[in-house]
Design goal:
With 279 residues, this protein is α/β, with parallel strands linked by helices. It has eleven helices and nine strands. It has two domains: 3-64, Helicase, Ruva Protein, domain 3, CATH 1.10.8; 77-278, Rossmann fold (3-Layer(aba) Sandwich), CATH 3.40.50.150. It has helices at residues 3-16, 22-34, 38-42, 49-63, 68-72, 96-105, 124-132, 145-157, 199-204, 218-230, 246-254; strands spanning 74-77, 80-83, 114-118, 137-142, 164-168, 179-184, 231-240, 258-265, 271-278.
Amino acid sequence: MRKIDLLRHAVERLSLAGIEDASSEARLLLCWACECTPLELMHLTEIEAAPVDRFSTALERRCAREPMAFITGEQGFWTLDVSVSPETLIPRGDSESLIEALLAHKPERESVRSILDIGTGTGCLLLAALSEYPQAWGLGVDIAPQAAQLAQHNARRNHLAERAAFIAGCWAEAVKGPFDVVLSNPPYIEHEVMAQLMPEVRQYEPHRALDGGDDGLIAYRALCKSLPHLLAEDGCAILELGIGQAEAVTLLAEAEGLKRVACRKDLGGIERALVLTFS
């Protein structure tokens, strides 16, 4: 089938489904179906039957607003590629702010030996941190066994399995410190806002990793109570924040004897990565 006809049809379908950048997404889907790069796609004029079938199935899924990452099965994060599944949040560029904040707070690459990632999901935060600190080992904890298994797969995929372990457990209750670094991207969306999320998020991503309760702060209360027992004396915790949550989470941390030393903004200018240490 002619490539131009496939793309024209796909753009029409995606636009009707409410996909904003329909042209770009159509090309990305076709690249995935053909297992080629965008440059290679430019030189194709006809698409064989098998890739056409694969593309058609993927197009139906995307028109139903299933996230692109769940269709392709992977997502880029930091310098890594990680596998994803509906058991985990899809890694987002905003979360890379936590790695940037960590590198700014602990620039000496030999200074970090142990890292804990609470609510690890795909393992992207822990694995990105381990890729930057070659002497460190890390532990990721997630309440969902399927997430822990996927994170372990991602460690193997990125050649970090010898320095990373993942377990299923209830937040910080499953482990004891001390750790040089604690990372966490907890659920922080207010419960009443959940119904307003984009269909890709609301219908496909796990609500347990999104819903932060009535005020969005339930997970932070538990985290801040646990952090003093998890952090090494000169350690740091870096927590991902939702929009406008920096002050509230800082107060929760200070009530547990922690000190805010930095809060890094994401590319959208939102305070996203809160860095905490002992007072």
